[in-house]
């Protein structure tokens, strides 16, 4: 069949309904042809024909349903009206067959052009399904077909970049009603049959996450101004489920377990508007979809992607971000990079939503035990949060000392960029908490410092009699710090900062950094040998230091003079006293 024949058949069917049987010919060719150009032409013609009959009122879903309920006795006498109904039923069957073929092409087609064309065809039919019914409802989104389409998308084994970009750019981000029903249908797919392993496969969860990332909730209700299907005016007739009151309590809208109470439209009141124009309605569906996704078993790589997306892309648009507390707490307990990624979102819940996390600092202390976390891509954000967590002046001295000691110990294995941040951070900790100055005042011989000696003398003078003084000396001797001969009382393997005995130790690790190969690290280590400053060190320049930046800084460095390569210039390869002088002749 030629392309001109396809257009001729389409024109004949539109001109005279007696040629309606040729519609079946077009469908048969659509199923059989392997030519991409011919398939595209057939798909376009069939779409135009079905929309043509829908506008005429011959493509009706209700008529098809009523006809199936009739008994045989009612069909014995075939009148002209009944013949029309039979035609409508036949058209509806052809329409369903066409939709099934388009869904099949979306799910199984390897050619991006045909797959995208089938998707666009389905979306045009979905936007026109309000013409398929006889109800007086002003807004009708073809969600029954759209749900089947989303089901095919989450089952796609491979997504091409072109197809994904088309779905996102032309529909999900372009129309808020498409985005709304996408979230609604994804929630339905992820929530049904949770015990079935056949549905909730890794591929389905990954594709659902891919589609969910396409959604973007606006900041204001006024931005909800683009819809695939035109919304009715407030005075038009609409169902109660599609109309809400702007002054309705948000908790009533957010309650997914109970039926939402939407008031009838007054027509004269401007307080009522369509559900799709309510920002809260979009946030409810967005929240429900994310909660449904997080209840699934997430693959490890996707797990990290989800945690990375939560702070900036998800949590600001959730109805109740505290619903993520259990998920984030469990993620924080995993350890490694997973804990690092969960740290940011967990901190937001603690800071902005008053989440109580009593073991937060203990787990953060354990997290610092892994030096590999200081070389991951998220290190700069981790350093920012670490500075915020440890900047509080209400932290007890033992906890601050434990973190200072743990960070100093990590410096012995960390890369240069991490050390350039950790040393100023430890400096600020000591400067902020005066009780920690004893960690740097202990001498290299590990004898009691002058401050410790003065403190011991004050305790002796405060005793009322010799018995109290003897008891105090006995207690002091029993808890005396043993730092001689290389003994460090700090317990590096202790998980509890309170039991680590960091206050009894010293920051000898920072002293060893004086001999670091990097001159900037060595200079930072010397800060602790002079009197502490009165102002804190700005950590922002040290957050994102990498080997590449260090290298670029060094090659741009201007030398003050010629570089000294030897103590005397050479005029020949071997000196006269060298044993190789006579071994070669040049």
TrEMBL record:
It comes from the Eukaryota. GO terms for cellular component: Noc4p-Nop14p complex; small-subunit processome. Residues 339-524 form the CCAAT-binding factor domain. One of its GO terms (biological process) is ribosome biogenesis. Pfam families: CBF (PF03914). Belongs to the CBF/MAK21 family. This is CCAAT-binding factor domain-containing protein.
């Amino acid at each position: 069949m030629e392309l001109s024949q396809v257009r001729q058949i389409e024109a004949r069917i539109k001109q005279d309904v007696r040629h309606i049987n040729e519609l079946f010919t077009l469908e048969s060719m659509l199923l059989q042809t392997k030519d991409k150009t011919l398939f595209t032409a057939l798909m376009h013609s069939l779409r135009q024909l079905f929309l043509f009959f829908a506008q005429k009122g011959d493509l009706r879903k209700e008529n098809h349903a009523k006809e199936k309920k009739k008994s045989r006795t009612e069909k014995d006498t075939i009148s002209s009206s009944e013949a029309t109904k039979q035609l409508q039923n036949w058209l509806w069957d052809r329409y369903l067959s066409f939709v099934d073929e388009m869904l099949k092409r979306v799910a199984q087609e390897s050619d991006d052009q045909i797959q995208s064309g089938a998707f666009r065809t389905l979306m045009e039919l979905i936007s026109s399904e309000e013409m398929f019914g006889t109800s007086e409802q002003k807004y009708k989104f073809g969600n029954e077909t759209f749900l089947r389409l989303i089901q095919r998308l989450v089952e796609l084994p491979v997504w091409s970049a072109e197809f994904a970009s088309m779905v996102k750019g032309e529909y999900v981000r372009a129309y808020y009603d498409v985005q709304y029903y996408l979230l609604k249908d994804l929630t339905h797919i992820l929530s049904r049959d949770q015990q079935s392993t056949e549905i909730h496969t890794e591929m389905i969860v990954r594709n659902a996450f891919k589609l969910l990332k396409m959604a973007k909730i606006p900041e204001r209700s006024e931005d909800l101004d683009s819809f695939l299907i035109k919304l009715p005016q407030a005075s038009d007739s609409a169902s109660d489920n599609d109309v809400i009151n702007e002054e309705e309590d948000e908790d009533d809208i957010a309650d997914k377990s109970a039926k939402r109470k939407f008031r009838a439209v007054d027509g004269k009141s401007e307080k009522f508007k369509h559900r799709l124009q309510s920002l809260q309605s979009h946030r409810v569906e967005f929240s429900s979809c994310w909660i449904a996704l997080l209840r699934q078993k997430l693959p490890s790589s996707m797990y990290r992607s989800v945690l990375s997306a939560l702070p900036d892309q998800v949590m600001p648009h959730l109805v109740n971000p505290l619903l993520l507390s259990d998920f984030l707490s469990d993620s924080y307990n995993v350890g490694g990079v997973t804990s690092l990624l969960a740290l940011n979102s967990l901190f937001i819940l603690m800071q902005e939503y008053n989440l109580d996390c009593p073991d937060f600092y203990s787990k953060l202390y354990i997290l610092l035990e892994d030096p590999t976390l200081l070389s991951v891509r998220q290190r700069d954000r981790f350093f920012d949060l670490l500075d915020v967590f440890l900047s509080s002046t209400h932290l007890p001295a033992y906890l601050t000392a434990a973190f200072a000691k743990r960070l100093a110990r990590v410096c012995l294995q960390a890369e240069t960029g991490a050390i350039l941040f950790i040393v100023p951070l430890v400096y600020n900790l000591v400067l902020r908490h005066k009780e920690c100055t004893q960690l740097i005042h202990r001498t290299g011989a590990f004898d009691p410092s002058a401050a410790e000696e003065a403190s011991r003398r004050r305790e002796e003078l405060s005793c009322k009699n010799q018995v109290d003084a003897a008891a105090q000396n006995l207690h002091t001797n029993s808890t005396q710090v043993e730092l001689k001969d290389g003994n460090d009382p700090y317990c590096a393997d202790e998980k509890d900062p309170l039991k680590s005995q960091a206050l009894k130790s010293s920051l000898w690790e920072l002293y060893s950094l004086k001999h670091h190969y990097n001159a900037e690290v060595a200079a930072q280590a010397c800060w602790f040998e002079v009197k502490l400053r009165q102002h804190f060190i700005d950590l922002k320049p040290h957050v994102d230091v990498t080997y590449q930046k260090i290298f670029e800084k060094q090659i741009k460095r201007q030398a003050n003079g010629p570089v000294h390569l030897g103590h005397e210039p050479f005029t020949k390869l071997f000196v006269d006293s060298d044993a190789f002088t006579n071994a070669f002749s040049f």
